[in-house]
Write a structure and sequence with these properties.
With 384 residues, this protein is of the alpha+beta class. The protein is 45% helix and 14% strand. Strands 1, 2, 3, 4, 5 and 6 form a 6-stranded antiparallel β-sheet that branches. Helix 1 packs antiparallel against helix 3. The mean pLDDT is 94.
Length: 384
């Protein structure tokens, strides 16, 4: 891991000295400003060779774990067939801190693999990509997605109200992610390069995840139930056990970062899901627990969680997967809350080499509150 970090750092420094622009499809831009109309033409206009991108406009800077910009496009002649995007949404790893974080975690490879190989097979509401690639030496990357803003009623935050219809839509979407590749041989052939969830978590742990998780947990004392807070020493061993559990459970394709801020609301309370940088091979129970615990207020979660688990199992059964009883799913749901908590205690007190502002602080605090309350309500620690 240290060797890979040095490799990425050295490659980044070399790229900065070169300061080149991207003009051909096989060159990844070093920044959004280094994109050129020629590069965009090769990426977007392969099916309309008589059309060229003549200019583009960059939207506001938006950086967290990745570097993000919207890009408005102008063509000459006009879009002949009407199938070229007027606007795209781009995710990249241009800054060194972003390359180290997403490269060492495995997130860059995971997301590019998802958009190129997995997304075309899923009947879900989630953006499609026009282009997704990364350099396996420098971990510079670019993912260019369809701009869905015009279709979306709202992009979710921790303040978004998830009513019962929306929650059931989330369960249906998860089933449509998990069922197609459930115990499929493709997991060990086509998608063998995709990390298992335990391997992904192990990579993340090399960023002193345990220390950051402990600091974040202790610092968030005012939103954590007192009974659970007193048992802080039990949290990390139980978290490792819940991750290790995936080795013994049936695998499929999982999202693994299904917190509410990665969802969006479409008309008629239909839900969509974005941000696939934690995509792995694992068991569906982490996605189920993580979604329910972060999407719902504490009160609604207490009222609906059993019904939603049943709805998820029924959705899976409709898709041909019916090997898990409710009682089994209920215990898995309770157990898998623990590693979901790690994804929020860490950004509450991140390591120095992690990018700043990975998540808004009020979002982090609210999700810690929701997840820890669920862990406490459901006596999760008693299962380990």
């Amino acid at each position: 891991m240290a060797d890979l970090a040095q490799q990425i750092t050295t490659a980044f420094e070399q790229e900065q000295r070169a300061n080149r622009t991207a003009t051909t499809r096989d060159e990844l831009p070093l920044s959004f400003e280094s994109m050129t109309p020629q590069w965009l033409t090769q990426v977007l206009c392969a099916n309309q060779p008589k059309v060229n991108v003549t200019s583009f406009e960059l939207g506001p800077v938006d950086s967290g774990s990745t570097n993000r910009r919207a890009v408005k496009l102008h063509y000459q002649p006009e879009n002949l067939r009407g199938d070229l995007p007027v606007k795209v949404f781009c995710k990249a790893t241009h800054a060194l801190a972003n390359r180290l974080l997403t490269g060492l975690f495995g997130a860059t490879h995971a997301e590019v693999t998802f958009y190129n190989q997995i997304r075309p097979h899923l009947a879900i509401k989630s953006p499609h990509s026009y282009f997704a690639a990364y350099d396996s030496h420098s971990y510079n990357s670019m993912i260019m997605l369809e701009d869905i803003a015009a279709q979306v009623e709202s992009f979710c935050s921790h303040r978004t109200l998830i009513n019962r219809t929306r929650a059931e839509s989330q369960m249906a979407l998860l089933a449509n992610v998990h069922a197609p590749f459930y115990q499929s041989e493709a997991l060990t052939t086509r998608f063998a390069s995709l990390h298992s969830w335990p391997a992904y978590f192990a990579n993340a742990s090399r960023f002193n995840l345990q220390a950051a998780a402990k600091r974040g947990f202790l610092a968030a004392h005012d939103v954590i139930p007192a009974r659970l807070y007193r048992r802080e020493e039990e949290i990390w061993p139980a978290t490792l056990a819940c991750v290790e559990q995936h080795h013994r459970l049936p695998s499929t394709i999982t999202h693994n970062d299904v917190h509410l801020a990665n969802w969006y609301v479409l008309p008629n309370d239909v839900m969509g899901l974005s941000d696939w940088g934690c995509c792995s091979r694992g068991h569906w129970s982490r996605d189920l627990a993580y979604t329910i615990a972060t999407a719902l207020s504490v009160e609604d979660r207490r009222l609906w969680e059993k019904d939603l688990i049943r709805y998820y199992l029924e959705s899976m059964a409709t898709l041909g997967i019916s090997d898990t009883s409710f009682d089994q799913a209920w215990d898995l749901y309770r157990q898998q809350l623990l590693s979901a908590l790690t994804w929020w205690t860490v950004p509450y007190s991140p390591e120095q080499d992690m990018p700043e502002g990975m998540q808004p602080r009020d979002t982090v605090k609210e999700f810690i509150h929701r997840i820890t309350t669920a862990i406490d309500d459901l006596d999760t620690l008693e299962l380990w």
